[in-house]
From TrEMBL:
The lineage of its organism: Bacteria, Bacillati, Actinomycetota, Actinomycetes, Streptosporangiales. InterPro entries: Ald_Oxase/Xan_DH_a/b, Ald_Oxase/Xan_DH_a/b_sf, Ald_Oxase/xanthine_DH-like, AldOxase/xan_DH_MoCoBD1, AldOxase/xan_DH_MoCoBD2, AldOxase/xan_DH_Mopterin-bd_sf. SUPFAM superfamilies: CO dehydrogenase molybdoprotein N-domain-like (SSF54665), Molybdenum cofactor-binding domain (SSF56003). Residues 23-127 form the Aldehyde oxidase/xanthine dehydrogenase a/b hammerhead domain. This is Xanthine dehydrogenase. Keywords: Molybdenum, Oxidoreductase. GO terms for molecular function: iron ion binding; oxidoreductase activity. The keyword Oxidoreductase applies.
Length: 699
């Protein structure tokens, strides 16, 4: 088979699903309404710890349209779950405020909500503990942290090196709980057939959700089908099963009718995960020229009493900078709170805020330019593992960013640049994120008309995965993108890893390329003739990925920020953001730029706005809606630019690409905090940078 089409990868191909989205033809999970469907209104616990004593459904069942009320006493039994968060309505125990304790099913959503309001639930409340403290007496060392990383890591003698270091930075940084708020709230439509369970769900991973639900309901995976053809954002919150999915399936099984369940924005703050708050102590020991001798980074986090989730907060510190003596560790406390989960770049986002803020403090203490400080501490190999990097272009990002940003003209003294009542400053921080791949499978069919159909259970969560995979397949087949049709978002298709960890395109793309190459070889054997029924080839990358060469694979970037702080009010505005990234081969510059800018905007929100506030008395997050949980809007991001340096890395995948969905958020908050210090001379170590955290220190 000869290649005649121009390369598609690297071109600015318009979104292949763009017309469907702007015309409303793209259907999301809750828009599927099976015949005879009921609507579910979950009932949430109003205590933070204790037990449900009694559920009185008498008044609720009298309401027009109400079909059933399900709670722990009458719910179908589930198989034991590895994640106790998914043991929905299996026990009277309440582990956190907002936990599901019942669900009302009715003919319309209005009837269901009204009946849920009338459901009478009696509790025995117990004293609760919802406050994260680094000195909490129940703080412990978990067996491992997210993504399977070791909890602690140590090289050399960091305590002795710190004691001997001429320059030492020792500071504690905190980040608050933060909640994902994708545009499309979580939703599930569950329907049982004679063949099993069918779910339309807003999920980042149809294959993974299928396995989870099959295990819970004691079924073979092939008897569960999860469909997620269009997903309106996730940011990690839809990467794993949450209680609402189980509740919908459980309710549908109980009543023998399809059930539609949409999680409200307010409910999302309890049942769909969030980023754990952190308390982080960073200690850096260095020579007067800024060269690091020791790094110690300790993180204290929270999880729920029913499930353990430990974010890998200090893991990026293990490989960022050269230092012969180092220690990183994580400690966790199980509180009466909802279970944290993934939120865009878990680990790297809060961890790099602390590390990159500390690096800025070290630069000031040594009198070294912050860009130059990072260059001086560039490692030759991965400091944690000793492995060579497949590619590492952090220095190139820092140099190019400094050039584009105009860093050379910067006066390093803090608090000296004024424009009327505005204090103006600039800051820099590094970014990083691992270049993961996970096993996936794909099939490709050639039709007699010259078109191709690519099938894989990947999920496009709004990132442009359909478009990127179309380009990858077109090049592997030697055809034009218009001849390729993609079928994704269905667990009945060849298995695919979750759309998370910035590994979707790399993982799915590898499988698609291998399947396409297999089909090309098959077509060559058939002399290019395609039978009337088409010709299909398949591939599974499990063996390839398990056998890949051991290397340190990471994307890198540099973030530059300019801020203006009102000296009278303390109001901080970001004037400019620039991100320069090294992320391998860019599949599509339009979708890539969108992902970088989206991550940077989310990082700006983290720096200045986002904060979930815990009410210690009631054990609940007070600001659980978009009126009170503040996010960056257009006026907050007037000038945001993203670009990338050329990077040829043959050790990644057939496309030579690195994930870009998450690295944009990493480092942004630190760059802004560092710019605030440069503007004002005030070091804010607790996010977000609120007015009162500046005002008391401003002249």
């Amino acid at each position: 088979m000869t290649t005649t089409a121009a390369p598609a990868v690297g071109s600015a191909l318009p979104r292949v699903d763009g017309l469907d989205k702007v015309t409303g033809r793209a259907r999301y999970a809750f828009e599927h309404t099976p015949r005879d469907a009921l609507y579910a209104a979950p009932v949430q616990a109003t205590i933070a710890r204790g037990e449900v004593d009694r559920v009185d459904a008498t008044e609720a069942l009298r309401r027009p349209g109400v079909v059933a009320v399900v709670w722990h006493a009458n719910a179908p039994r589930l198989a034991p779950a590895d994640d106790a968060e998914l043991a929905v309505l299996q026990s009277p125990r309440v582990a956190y405020r907002g936990q599901y304790v019942a669900v009302v099913l009715a003919e319309t959503p209005h009837e269901a909500r009204e009946a849920a309001r009338l459901l009478h639930v009696e509790y025995t409340a117990e004293p609760h503990d919802v406050e994260l403290r680094a000195d909490h007496p129940k703080m412990y060392r978990p067996a491992q942290v997210n993504a399977g990383y070791a909890t602690d890591e140590e090289h050399g003698d960091p305590d002795a090196a710190l004691a001997a270091a001429p320059v030492v930075v020792d500071a504690t940084y905190t980040t608050p709980a933060e909640h994902n708020n994708p545009m499309e709230p979580h939703a599930t439509v569950a329907e049982w057939h004679s063949g099993g369970l069918v779910l339309h769900d807003s999920t980042q991973g149809a294959s993974a959700l299928r396995r989870t639900l099959a295990a819970l309901f004691g079924m073979p995976p092939e008897q569960v089908r999860v469909i997620a053809r269009h997903v309106g954002g996730g940011f990690g919150s839809k990467g794993r099963a949450h209680p609402h999915v189980v509740l919908a399936a459980l309710a549908a099984k109980q009543v023998g009718r399809p059930v539609k369940l949409a999680v409200t924005r307010q409910q999302m703050f309890a049942v769909t995960g969030y980023r754990t708050p952190t308390v982080q102590r960073v200690r850096l020991g260095a020579e007067p020229d800024g060269r690091l001798a020791a790094i110690v980074h300790e993180a204290f986090e929270q999880s729920s009493t029913i499930a353990e989730f430990a974010e890998q907060t200090t893991v990026p510190t293990r490989m960022m900078y050269a230092a012969p003596h180092r220690r990183t560790c994580h400690r966790l406390v199980r509180l009466d709170v909802p279970t944290p989960s993934w939120m865009r770049a878990p680990g790297e986002t809060p961890g790099m805020f602390a590390l990159e803020s500390a690096m800025d403090e070290l630069a000031a203490a040594c009198g070294v330019d912050p860009v130059e400080l990072r260059v001086r501490n560039e490692p030759a190999t991965d400091p944690a593992t000793g492995l060579p990097f497949s590619s590492r272009n952090l220095v190139a990002c820092l140099r190019e960013g400094a050039r584009r940003f105009g860093w050379a003209g910067r006066d390093p003294r803090p608090g000296v640049r004024r424009e009327g009542r505005l204090l103006v400053g600039t800051g820099v921080a590094a970014s990083t994120y691992p270049a993961y791949r996970a096993p996936s499978a794909a099939s490709v069919t050639a039709g007699p008309d010259g078109d191709f159909v690519v099938r894989i259970a990947a999920t496009d969560i709004g990132t442009g995965a359909r478009t990127a995979l179309t380009q990858i397949a077109a090049d592997a087949l030697g055809t034009a993108p218009g001849r390729v049709r993609l079928e994704i978002g269905d667990s009945d298709l060849p298995r695919a890893t979750v759309a998370g960890g910035s590994m979707g395109t790399a993982s799915w793309g590898t499988a698609v390329v291998r399947a396409c190459h297999a089909l090309v070889a098959e077509l060559d054997r058939h002399a290019g003739r395609v039978p009337a029924g088409g010709l299909t080839a398949e591939a599974d990358t499990g063996e390839e990925i398990r056998g890949q060469e051991k290397l340190a694979r990471h994307a890198f970037g540099a973030q530059f920020a300019e801020v203006a702080v009102d000296a009278d009010t303390g109001e901080t505005r970001v004037r400019r953001l620039l991100g320069v990234f090294a992320a391998g081969r860019i599949i599509n510059p339009v979708t890539a730029r969108s992902q970088f800018l989206g991550g940077m905007t989310m990082g700006l929100s983290m720096a200045l706005l986002e904060e979930s506030v815990m009410d210690r008395e009631f054990g609940d997050y007070l600001n659980h809606d978009l009126a009170q949980y503040h996010l960056a809007a257009h006026a907050d991001v007037p000038d945001v630019q993203a670009c990338w340096v050329a990077e040829d890395d043959p050790h990644l995948n057939p496309m030579g690409s690195k994930g870009i969905g998450e690295i944009g958020i990493v480092g942004t908050a630190a760059a802004i905090a560092n710019a605030v210090h440069h503007a004002t001379g005030v070091r804010v170590r607790d996010l977000p940078i609120r007015l009162e955290r500046l005002l008391e220190h401003l002249p």
